[in-house]
Write a structure and sequence with these properties.
The protein has 7 helices and 9 strands; from the N terminus they run αββααβαβαββααβββ. The longest helix is centred in the first third of the chain and has 37 residues. By secondary structure, it is α/β, with parallel strands linked by helices.
Length: 249
Amino acid sequence: MVASTCRSVFASSETRVHNLHIVCLGRRCVKVQLGFDLWSQGDATVNHFARLTAVLLCLAVTSVPYAQDAADKAAQDTKKAREPDVIYVPTPQDVVDKMLELAKVQKDELLYDLGCGDGRIVATAAKKYGCHAVGYDIDPRRIKESLETVKKNQVESLVKIEQKDIFTLDLSAANVITLYLLPRLNVRLIPQLEKLKPGSRIVSHDFRMKGIKPDTVVDFKSKDGGGDHQIYLWTTPLKKSKPTTPTSG
């Protein structure tokens, strides 16, 4: 409607425009009718002014929906970059070393760190074991820190850092998965983890995976970060925990 109205203004031999009328829904203009009643046979300057005014009105009105479209897209992009699921707390370096040792990482393997934080796990894995590694995080601040860690450790040829939602990933290519999330998030990952190749290892710092029996649980006292830690190891195919039966009194 807007475009056809503007074309009629240009095409009018008499510059006859009348009854400016705009219909809006919310902030978006969906219909416009323009018009002037001016001298069709009169002063050319007046007619020229009328045409120019009509064109400017067309441009002003037609820009409204496009501006709104841009605002809507920006709002959608903001929603896509959702907030992280956990507060970032770095894993102490000696816990990182123990996790990788427990996973028995090999040089020809691929490691994924889900929620890579500052990149210390992927950088350590590449530097110490020579494996390829990919760190995933949804927070752009963590991505920046991870890239700096990778560069500092000179493992750019072995490590990639990607800003992605871990719950949308295909994990099937990985041999080793490292986690420092929360129990409910570990559980949420189970459908993806079940698609790993047989013999793949999953290592979690501090948090279990409800319903899945770990192969090993290691108690570890950190000298770097202090405190007591637990490290969980699972090997695929994942083994379901046996449901506990209540004892009769």
